[in-house]
Amino acid sequence: MKIVVVGAGPAGLYFSILMKMARPEAEISVVERNLPGDTFGFGVVFSDQTLDVFQRYDPESHAAILRNFAYWDDIEIDFKGESIRIGGNGFCGCARRTLLELLVQRARALGVSFAFGQEVKDLERFSDYDLVVAADGANSRIRAADEAHFQTATDLRPNKFVWMGSTRPFDAFTFFFQETPHGVFIAHCYQYEAGRSTWVIETDPETYQRAGLDGMDEAASAQFLETVFARQLDGHQLITNRSLWRNFPMIRNGRWSKGNLVLLGDAKATAHFSIGSGTKLAMEDAIALFEAFKAEAQVPAALARFEQARREDVEKTQHAADVSLVWFEQLKRFWNYDPAKFAFGLMTRAKAITYENLALRAPDFVKRVTRQFAEEQAARGLPTRGGEVPPMFQPFRLRAMALANRVVLSPMCTYSARDGRPEDWHLVHLGARALGGAGLIFTEMTDVSAEARITPGCAGLYTDEQEAEWRRIVRFVHTQSVAKICLQLGHAGRKGATKLMWDGMDRPLETGGWPLLSASALPYHPNSATPRPMTRADMDEVKADFVQTAIRAERAGFDMIELHCAHGYLLACFVSPLTNCRTDDYGGSLENRLRFPLEVFAAIRAVWPEEKPISVRISATDWKEGGVTADDSVLIAQAFAAAGCDLIDVSSGQTVVDAKPQFGRMFQTPFADKIRNEAQLATMCVGAISTPDQVNTILAAGRADLVAVGRGHLADPFFTLRAAAWYGVAIDCPQQYYPGFEAQRINAQREREELLSLRQRAKPVGGRVLGPATGLDVAAE
Q1: How many other C-beta atoms are found inside a 10 Å radius of the C-beta of residue 250?
Q2: Could you tell me if 518 and 579 are in contact, meaning their C-beta atoms sit under 8 angstroms apart?
Q3: Are strands 152-166 and 246-253 parallel, antiparallel or unpaired?
């Protein structure tokens, strides 16, 4: 087999090594534009888990890397004059030049040939090769020559950053946050060899301009930053090496190969430096491509396998990098935080690190964060259960409604009503979750008229019979639990008259449908019924339906109501420019598009008791260009808050059928975070939240005030009781269930003690704390 690798970076070199080891007879050449020894940047960083992978694939290069790496276990966060250390992370740093030299030496020893100082402008010279690997970096000329085929998308991030070095030593991966008259500068620092450390410095574009950095050369820029970080440098100087300010390019490619050509490393996909995964991603690409050739004899089949097997992992890493980089871009949002809360938010920003695993590796730090959460709540005039109780079990209050904890049963349609009337199903479903300990129970979207239903199985509250059934359910919740219960009011709009979810979600009824209303005459699916654009008379009638349902909700005894303005239903269709094409006072600007939803809100607020809260569910983004954006969601939330809304229930999408949501763990939480901390409003987050650990992580980091759990509650009605047992927290448990709760608590205490014992027995081996002993992900990976 004849292989050429274009680019002598970590990806190309490691792939060459692995292939030559497996196929000594293969002819493998590496072509590099730079001369031997040329490299830019300073150090690279790996976690324990990554090094363990390298050991499995090539023990010799792994050993060489370890001999030249600096190792550390802590992360240190320097914020507003306080330094906070968090251990148990496990990182190794190495000079980038050293890493490349080690890999080149290893490859040469195996028989790989090299051609340095050669620029590859086209691939004609490689026409007789079986495989061409384009590992020529983020600025890949090979990829750029055919970006249409590779479906390249480059997101140039707003923050400015520069790579520099220093002689200042570090014994921890350190973040410095330094405020100046121009703005805030951030330094990501780590030692990579004796007497040398990497300094990646970033700032927002406004600070960059105010500081005049756009007019400074490399030397002047370094001198300026030495004054910014004078205290942190402690007498050491910054070192430059083509240290030019840039914007980070987040690169994605829809295709990774063409014929016998494949993209590898940064040419294929980049990951932001804030999670330290760029070199990791590149070398794992090399491993995946090698594995593909182990499994497939033919090049086309191997490249297809590589892309199929590798894409999910790459996209997960890029998603984590996206979340991480946005945290740094939105630093102003968290600048007024207490240092411990700020550090907790930084550590948990990419979702790999959580409240629970931080409690294992840095128990005193998590105790401080937990205590600080209670103190902050007390300072806001809210009741607390003391500083030892995890955030999810701290009480919360909206107007006069007091919640025992922060866990919420998310509103979820069950399509099990008869003529809009809730049945025994709803009593058992909602009642069981109330008995299970959730502080607040949400009904499914409950429609304000028969014509407002999504499906024939949707619940309503527009008849006396429905009101009586809802009263029965509310009475059970109130008499048998400490939970509060909220009625979610809604109107399906253009998404109405559809089949039950399990018969074809959002698909129109074949018989028995009803006329549809919406902001504009746009069907949801091409074969859906076309709704009638609402007239003023229609608006008045629908508003009256909402008011009557709110009045019935009060008579039924609900503690709270929520107005559904999300997911492409009637009111959401007015808000989104994708579904509102009106030219009257209810279309056009965001202010106009909000006019009718705000009219409905004002009308129900007027008849709803002053002491009882109202929330609004919004879609914080439509997940489609031209639709509602995250920035719009702040304005939308502020408009409802000004009208008397007490809580923003933050969801997203489902507005149009061709939206492209980015799913993942807690994927909607960043929108709740944005609204809470930019608009200073109470928020509830929802979406792929499945564990008590995630609930505590979200709350402790200040990303939301309440956390709604949907599918987790479907699988386990006693989600909150089980969590209380795990954390050893006293909770109001039904007397009938108390023996079970107590047994669960005892077992959980034993499990926690065993887990802590395992952690404490993990000892350094050969200068390293073994990754598997911690069982934890790390910030850099």
Answers
A1: 19
A2: yes
A3: antiparallel
Strands 532-533, 560-565: pairing is unpaired
Structure token digits, residue 489: 């009011």
**From 337, 355, 524, 569, active-site residue:** 569
Residues 6+ apart with CB under 8 A from 701: 341, 344, 345, 348, 673
- Each residue's pLDDT tens digit, 626-684: 999 999 999 999 999 999 999 999 999 999 999 999 888 899 999 999 999 999 999 99
Decide: 127 and 50 in contact? Cβ < 8 Å. Answer: no
Q: Yes or no: say if 701 and 345 are a contact pair by the CB < 8 Å rule.
A: yes
Please spell the DSSP secondary structure of 121-184, one letter per residue: --SGGGTT-SEEEE---TT-HHHHTTHHHHTEEEEEEEEEEEEEEES---SSEEEEEEE-SS-E
325 in Cβ contact with 272 (< 8 Å): yes
Average pLDDT, the chain: 93
Q: How far apart are CA 591 and CA 575, in angstroms?
A: 9
CA atoms within 13 A on the CB side of 254: 8
The set of residues, in sequence order, having a beta carbon less than 8 Å from that of 108 and lying 6+ positions away, is 114
The residues facing 485 across adjacent strands are 441
CA distance 585 to 571: 15
Statement: the pTM of the whole predicted model exceeds 0.85: yes
Distances (CA, A) of 570 to 442, 444, 445, 609, 643: 20, 16, 12, 25, 19
- Count of positions (residues) in the chain: 781
**Cβ 405 vs Cβ 452: under 8 Å:** no
CA distance 385 to 584: 52
Residue 770 above 50 pLDDT?
no
Are the C-beta atoms of 411 and 417 separated by less than 8 Å? no
Q: Is 447 helix (H, G, I), strand (E, B) or coil?
A: strand
Crossing angle of helices 363-379/692-700, nearest 10°?
Answer: 60
71 is catalytic: no
Q: Residue 404 is encoded by which pair of tokens?
A: 């025992």
Take residue 44 and report the two structure tokens written for it. Answer: 């690279």
Q: pLDDT digits over 540-592, tens only?
A: 999 999 999 999 999 999 999 999 999 999 999 999 999 999 999 999 999 99
What is the SS3 assignment for 423? coil
Asked if 128 contacts 260 with a C-beta cutoff of 8 angstroms, the reply is: no
- The answer to whether residues 487 and 461 touch, using CB atoms and an 8 Å cutoff, is yes
Instruction: Judge whether 562 and 486 are in contact, CB under 8 Å.
Output: yes
Give the residue from 607, 635, 632, 611 showing the smallest Cα distance to 622.
Answer: 632
Find, among 61, 64, 70, the residue nearest to 286 by Cα: 61
Distance CA(585)–CA(199), nearest Å, equals 54
pLDDT tens track for 291-330 = 999 999 899 999 999 999 999 999 988 988 999 999 999 9
Compute the distance between CA of residue 652 and CA of residue 629 in angstroms, rounded to an integer: 10
Helices (H), 643-731: 669-679, 692-700, 711-715, 719-727
Burial (CB count within 10 angstroms: exposed 0-12, middle 13-18, buried 19+), residue 610: exposed
